[in-house]
């Protein structure tokens, strides 16, 4: 899911009309995600949402693209320009005082391929403690050997670069990679006609093919450092190493490693006081933007959460971005929760709650929010942000919603946000 920090939030009006149209894909690139399935029907009718911004009608394709890219969102029954899940002030304004209440919240964007808040997977795609219960997944995202070793640009494309910090995610079926994108139209400034490879299109070590951008997971507390300067011509994000002449090559001239830390000005982490495991999944961004980067949180464990430094990390069309994490229900393992789902269960892109994390304007901006409009399913455990030098309070309470105030008496169904100017902030997960 993409978060873009914007100061203004003009509302978009919307109306719907039934039009007799032929079925088909109105976007200029291929779709491969399993949720993009349309039933054959005899009467070819579809409801088209007409978006109006400040009195001007926005073309349907632009409206869809805006929702997909995270620039537009549904809020209170209308479309709105998407702000970050936190609402950072401009650099000239002071962070909220420690006595203020939590910041106003704007719901996250939705995806173009289905009603889900994961941005366009348009193909354009642990530590454990001795007290931990047995996990439903043997995979872990907490360690990546060689994390600070410069990447040599001579590793065969058939070999996953786990010796350089990358963490293989085996259940994706892509030879350890979490996303593979291939642009059929390449210019110096943009990539277009981008195809995302899925597991049934390749076999393991053969998935990262010539000309493809191959994306990877990093350990908890780190994030991907490689993405090309040229990005999707119609707003898609692209990330990973490039397979060129049979070798994996760096794509970002600013970093010579595969993984980098987030901001170290504020420490952000998650701590489990739950009775069972919880799967937290970060989106592959820039990249396929699917929620596939796993953090397997066992009872009693703590894990760092990467907090992107917005001045130096990936920017989408010149706008700062944050990290988005999907929070699955109690007991769901990472292999089940950190993948694209079909909506039969509240997992993966249908997980009930998202966490937003980013550093901007002298503070970390942390949020907890409902995964709207994808699902109104309620998470079955509590989530609270605790820490030093916080602007207010923010807690999801089972049965009450997203609450702020000294006694958590101000609750809503959308979400809450706080800023943290220094020290440590912890997302506490606890049984209801």
UniProtKB/TrEMBL annotation:
It holds the Pfam family SUN. Residues 106-122 have a biased composition (Pro residues). GO terms for molecular function: hydrolase activity, acting on glycosyl bonds. It is found in: Secreted, Cell wall. Residues 86-105, 123-142 have a biased composition (Low complexity). Keywords: Carbohydrate metabolism, Cell wall, Cell wall biogenesis/degradation, Glycosidase, Hydrolase, Polysaccharide degradation, Secreted, Signal. Belongs to the SUN family. This is Secreted beta-glucosidase sun1.
């Amino acid at each position: 899911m993409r978060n873009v920090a914007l100061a203004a939030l003009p509302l978009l009006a919307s109306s719907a009309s039934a039009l007799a149209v032929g079925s088909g894909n109105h976007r200029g690139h291929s779709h491969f995600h399993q949720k993009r399935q349309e039933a054959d029907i005899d009467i070819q009718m579809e409801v088209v949402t007409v978006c109006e911004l400040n009195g001007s009608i926005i073309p349907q394709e632009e409206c869809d693209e805006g929702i997909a890219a995270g620039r537009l969102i549904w809020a209170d029954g209308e479309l709105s320009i998407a702000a970050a899940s936190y609402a950072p002030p401009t650099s000239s304004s002071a962070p909220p005082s420690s006595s203020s209440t939590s910041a106003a919240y704007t719901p996250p964007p939705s995806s173009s391929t289905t009603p889900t808040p994961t941005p366009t997977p348009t193909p354009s795609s642990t530590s454990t403690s001795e007290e931990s219960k047995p996990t439903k997944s043997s995979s872990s995202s907490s360690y990546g050997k060689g994390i600070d070793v410069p990447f040599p640009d001579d590793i065969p494309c058939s070999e996953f670069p786990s010796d350089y910090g990358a963490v293989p995610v085996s259940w994706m079926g892509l030879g350890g990679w979490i996303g593979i994108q291939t642009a059929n139209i390449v210019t110096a400034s943009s990539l277009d006609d981008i195809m995302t490879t899925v597991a049934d299109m390749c076999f393991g070590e053969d998935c990262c093919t010539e000309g493809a951008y191959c994306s990877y997971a990093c350990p908890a507390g780190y994030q991907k450092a490689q993405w090309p300067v040229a990005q999707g011509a119609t707003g898609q994000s692209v990330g990973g190493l490039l397979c060129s002449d049979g070798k994996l090559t760096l794509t970002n001239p600013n970093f010579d490693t595969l993984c980098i830390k987030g901001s170290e000005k504020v420490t952000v982490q998650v701590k489990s006081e739950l009775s069972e495991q919880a799967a937290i999944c970060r989106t592959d961004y820039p990249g396929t933007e699917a929620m596939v980067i796993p953090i397997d949180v066992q009872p009693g464990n703590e894990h760092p959460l990467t907090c992107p430094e917005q001045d130096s990390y990936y920017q989408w069309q010149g706008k700062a971005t944050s990290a988005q994490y999907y929070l699955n229900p109690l007991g769901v393992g990472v292999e089940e929760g950190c993948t694209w789902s079909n909506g039969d269960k509240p997992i993966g892109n249908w997980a009930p709650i998202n966490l937003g994390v980013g550093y901007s304007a002298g503070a970390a901006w942390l949020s907890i929010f409902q995964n709207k409009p994808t699902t109104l399913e309620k998470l079955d455990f509590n989530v609270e942000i605790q820490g030093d030098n916080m602007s207010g309070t923010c807690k999801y309470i089972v049965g009450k919603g997203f609450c702020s105030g000294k006694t958590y008496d101000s609750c809503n169904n959308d979400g809450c946000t706080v800023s943290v100017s220094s020290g440590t902030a912890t997302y506490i997960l606890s049984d209801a």
